[in-house]
Amino acid sequence: MQDNLTWWRGGVIYQIYPRSFMDSNGDGIGDLAGITAKLDHVASLNVDGIWLSPFFTSPMLDFGYDVSDYRDVDPMFGTLEDFKALLAKAHARGLKVMIDQVISHSSDRHPWFQESRADRANPRADWYVWADPRPDGTPPNNWLSIFGGPAWTFDSRRRQYYLHNFLTSQPDLNFHNPEVRQAQLDNMRFWLELGVDGFRLDTVNFYFHDAELRDNPPVPQGEAKTLGAPDANPYTWQRHVHDISRPENLAFLRDLRALMDEFPGTTTVGEIGDDNPLARMAEYTAGGDKLHMAYTFDLLNAPHSPAYIRKVIERFQRLAGDAWPCWATSNHDVERSATRWGRGEDPVAYPKVMLAMLFSLRGSVCLYQGEELGLPEAEVPFERIQDPYGKVLWPEFKGRDGCRTPMPWRQAPQGGFSSVEPWLPVEERHLPLAVENQQADPDSPLAATRTLLAFRAAHPALVDGDLTLVDVGEELLGFVRESDRERVLCLFNLGGKTLSTTLPHSGTPLQGHGFVSALDGDTLTLPPYQAAFLALDH
DSSP characters for 238-254? Predict the structure, then answer.
């Protein structure tokens, strides 16, 4: 683990979804005290910090991503004192703490929106995005909500439509108003002064909209759709040039960076769902005056062949300059990687080599809770679906509940997560993969995660070295990581058959990562789902 002002650069951040991590009070819902009780598990993984999905006061229609008070803890999760206790215990274990910030929109129950919707003349009348109907009463333009239907809802009080990129209960704040921008910076300052180490910024490219409210054009036939939504969603049929990723956003990101710079050692990671995500990532993280890092959906989508991963790396390097990425293969919004990428593969071996690849990329890493256990996507019956996104697009898209089910701690009723039936059902297939079962198994995904992250920390080139792709054939993935102290050749067999390749460089096999390979002269043979790391002459 790193402990310096740039800990985040090459750092590994463990994402916790609070509702589903650990229930300490027997109500079936995870909470802050539950997270605090399980921090030793997190620290044992050799990660650098944690990112907590929202725990703020909220009506929970989008499970905390609809905030009604930016400066308090929802009673469901505990109290502000519980958060301070979590912060202190995490710091005592060498873990940084990052928290979600959902500042592009609020809940419709936030006092700001209650005031804004009252009439057109109140002090916060312009704090949200309001627009008159067209002459025929229809919405002002063709923008769509990611959660289905128009991005506009009519409000009878003002006789205007308000913008919402997500649920109708999540009105978009008007970032063209400087008072709004300052209010959200002040909210973030509150948490920085409490001692948090950084922010994960939800939908960071959604803050501004086109002030002229121009229609989005359709995606030209044959061109790639956005990765930010499932293919069954009409949202993907538009080219999102006017509703998101507006140029005005860059000035706000500089203001945010100025705030972060007042608190040395803090960091930001932005979530980018965009038609051109890698270009946006480069734009938002280059120059050292905006975001510290950002992640996209390029590795959170279905394609995962070595050729595809190579193309993602190539595209980012072509665009990046001095930009810094944060890579993730799972999170609370997408199907778990062990299923999404691992269908038809060995359920134990595949997650291990996939994590080896993820931990070796140039950039920082987000590791989602349960990914260290190789958990597959849970099957949640329709009658137990909680996610509003899933209810709208069922059955083609079943929502995000399958990756949000409770963490299995023991092979026991409710997985040791709770003493009662939890808010989402515990997946039966997860129970044999529980933390307690994997603790004693040296061949488990949990053991592999700990070993790989210790190996990464021991090799500076894997933390923040440069990356150069090498040609090792179509079926293997290979690259060199190089720092001023070492060069490491990294090779991955992500499939189920033995593969051999002629090495582009001669090197000495490194040990301590848990994988096996055979080197005969300049020919390396990798059995199924294995990786190799070789020290090269510097």
Answer: B--SSSS--TTHHHHHH
Please tell me whether residue 16 adopts helix, strand or coil conformation. strand
Average pLDDT (4-9) is 93
User: 2 pLDDT exceeds 60?
Assistant: no
Above 90 in pLDDT, residue 207?
yes
The pair of structure tokens assigned to 231 is 């293919």
For 443-512, give the DSSP string: TSHHHHHHHHHHHHHH-HHHHH-EEEE----SSSEEEEEE-SS-EEEEEE--SSS-EEEE-SS-EEE--S
Q: Note whether 97 and 135 are within 8 A (CB).
A: no
396: its two tokens: 């083609």
* Mean pLDDT, residues 473-502: 97
Compute the distance between CA of residue 367 and CA of residue 359 in angstroms, rounded to an integer: 9
Q: Which residues contact 10 (CB under 8 A, 6 or more apart)?
A: 2, 363, 364, 462, 463, 464
| Average pLDDT for the chain | 96
| Active site residues per annotation | 202, 262
Strand, coil or helix: what is 101?
Answer: strand
Rounded Cα distance, 355 and 277, in Å = 22
Inter-residue contact 182 to 153 (CB < 8 Å): no
User: Can you read off the two tokens belonging to residue 443?
Assistant: 């061949």
In terms of Cβ atoms closer than 10 Å to its own Cβ (0-12, 13-18, 19+), residue 305 is middle
Q: Is the pLDDT of residue 119 over 80?
A: yes
Strands (E), 255-373: 267-271, 293-295, 326-327, 364-368
Residues 351, 199: Cα–Cα separation, whole Å: 28
Residue 365 CA from chain centroid, whole number: 9
What is residue 1's predicted lDDT score, i.e. its pLDDT?
47
Question: With b meaning 16 or more CB within 10 Å and e meaning fewer, what string describes 171-198?
Answer: bbbbbebeebbebbeebbeebbeeebbb
Q: What is the mean pLDDT of residues 138-163?
A: 97
CA contacts within 13 A on the Cβ side of 485: 7
Is the pLDDT at 94 greater than 50? The verdict is yes
Q: What is residue 526's three-state secondary structure?
A: strand
Residue 393 is predicted with a pLDDT of: 67
Please tell me the distance from the alpha carbon of residue 425 to that of residue 405, in angstroms, as a whole number. 6
Cβ count near 262 (within 10 Å): 10
Query: How far from chain centre, in Å, is Cα 485?
Result: 31
Are 340 and 398 spatial neighbours (Cβ–Cβ below 8 Å)?
no
Mind listing the pLDDT tens digit for each residue in 381-404? 988 999 877 667 667 667 899 999
- In the three-class reduction of DSSP (H, G, I as helix; E, B as strand; rest coil), residue 433 is classed as helix
Q: Is the pLDDT of residue 228 over 90?
A: no
The residue whose two tokens read 């399980």 is 38
What the block records as the tokens of 340 is 């999404």
pLDDT at position 175: 99
Structure-token pair, residue 108:
């419709």
Which position has the token pair 């909470």? Answer: 31
Phi, psi of 236 (to 5 degrees): -75, -5
Q: Is the pLDDT assigned to residue 239 strictly greater than 90?
A: yes
User: Given this model, what pLDDT does residue 537 score?
Assistant: 87
**pLDDT attached to residue 219:** 95
